[in-house]
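Box 3.1. Reading complex inputs
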Amino acid sequence: MSLDPSAKALVPFVSVDHMMRLVHHIGIEKMLADLAATIEDNFRRWQSFDKTPRIPAHSDVGVIELMPTTDGELYGFKYVNGHPSNTFAGLQTVTAFGLLADMRTGYPVLFSEMTILTALRTAATSAMVARHLAPKGAKTMAVIGNGAQCEFQCLAFRTLVGIDEVRLYDLDPAATEKAARNLAGTGLRVVSCKSPEEAIEGAQILTTCTADKKYATILSDNMVGPGVHINAVGGDSPGKTELAEGILHRASIFVEFPPQTRIEGEIQQLAEDHPVTELWQVINGEAEGRTSQDQITLFDSVGFAVEDFAALRYLHGAIQGTEHFVLLDMLADPDDPRDLFGMVQRAA
Amino acid sequence: MSLDPSAKALVPFVSVDHMMRLVHHIGIEKMLADLAATIEDNFRRWQSFDKTPRIPAHSDVGVIELMPTTDGELYGFKYVNGHPSNTFAGLQTVTAFGLLADMRTGYPVLFSEMTILTALRTAATSAMVARHLAPKGAKTMAVIGNGAQCEFQCLAFRTLVGIDEVRLYDLDPAATEKAARNLAGTGLRVVSCKSPEEAIEGAQILTTCTADKKYATILSDNMVGPGVHINAVGGDSPGKTELAEGILHRASIFVEFPPQTRIEGEIQQLAEDHPVTELWQVINGEAEGRTSQDQITLFDSVGFAVEDFAALRYLHGAIQGTEHFVLLDMLADPDDPRDLFGMVQRAA
């Protein structure tokens, strides 16, 4: 009897280092486009997924959440934390990892870091949604909040929407400098701005991705004119919003999964029956997206398990034939499945 | 700027191989006793835990479940599947892994295989509970169902309860032979039996741990006489029970977490308001355990998140100073937390 674990007992693991190498192997813009395509494909078959709001564990300083979903064939979940005060301790506000498993056997088939992958899928989702909602020919995007998500958004909108100018603003000029430095050489025209008002000048798309866990007003009502698309990324948990309520009353609001967005999104500010459109229906052609030039469209993004599932499914394919993973001895797999004790005993 | 991950970005990982080495390093009976002590300690402070029924994803052939809990300082969850048909494919019916994280930062502090650890904690929990409920001086235990859990139960009851004879029965004689072979030399007197009736002869403790996902009658009403303690391990999911209903009406029933046990345990056969006693109250001295010699006590075990939390907490301490883990590069941790993109960019 062999003590070596069998192939099924070994789970491919994509570390942070592997993920970074994979991004460069594929190319970040191609990876954003591939991710957007997979996410769009999974939105199109929305009704094949088991959907449930994420399962949170809250503390005074943050939250740890599990986000599971399944399409009946594969099962995926993400572990993600949100701890705004981490930044002051030199830690990431958001870290994540996730897993994909085979529903027929319950055996995991992929385990991966998802801090970087979440940043990529969030930006890919935003840009994919903007292709359906933003005004045609949009070339300029304002990005208010220049933290960890900012550059990913900029590149995704360049690749998928055709944005050629990004106008950056952050309360902390050092964050804007960091983003501008990182975006130099990407082909985007980068304008660092001294105020949110300056940032939104001439922008057809307004992206908000700030990190503070509070009711904030990143965009006030008078800043939002007719015809823009708002990509509201940062308002994503109870007590954390970015838009003045007045904007919400003037906008057509599009969401991922209403039961979750009503708790976590900008629309937590509104009545529970305020009308929203589900994005999967727009993507499917079952509901209308943008219907007029003057319409304000709002993607009230909170991030949903189906996007992570799609990202893991894409990753599972993308690592095949590469060296960008290792095999983890994660599953006990005795020769005789009933002889777990004997396996342990023989390891002596 | 360093590309090496910082210490906090590296998560200790205990593989299956590490776990087996750790079991031998500590000694399996000591480890069972240590686990029982930690689990008992966590039951004693039951009210400090966030408790929720596990979150399942069902298919025709099995289930994948997430079991999270937190005591406010640490957060733990287990991923576990249950696929009875896996055995025929040479796979484990149940595999598991789990994670422990710091609630203050959301950063994981331990990632581990939990197939072996679950087998250990399940047996440790059973034996710890039997110390509170089984008749004093019990020396003989019947074990019906001689699959993966059987030998762990036998050793835990030897170490923690003082059992010196185990009487084994399984529908498949090969399973009994396997268990008897593994238990040779442990100091237990092992009697292989040809029927459940033979197995229960003279036994003060009846352990059932069969694997079939159906309503089964492993113990019929007339097999259970006064004064015994029943340790019902196998009836642990909807549609999966082991005891004749008549037994339940004659027994004092003790459970881990009633909302979960009413769905998953033997008591799914009973009315929703059938009286049960919560084990944490017995352990705390707030409720009575065994009150008479003739009483039939039943531990309707289904396994609860607090037990896995306790096992992970124990493991986190047990690996310190050993070589029985590796560090996984699981968390992206740029020097500047807001510069995730720059970190990816610089890896080129």
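In summary: Chain B touches chain A through 84 residues (CB under 8 Å).
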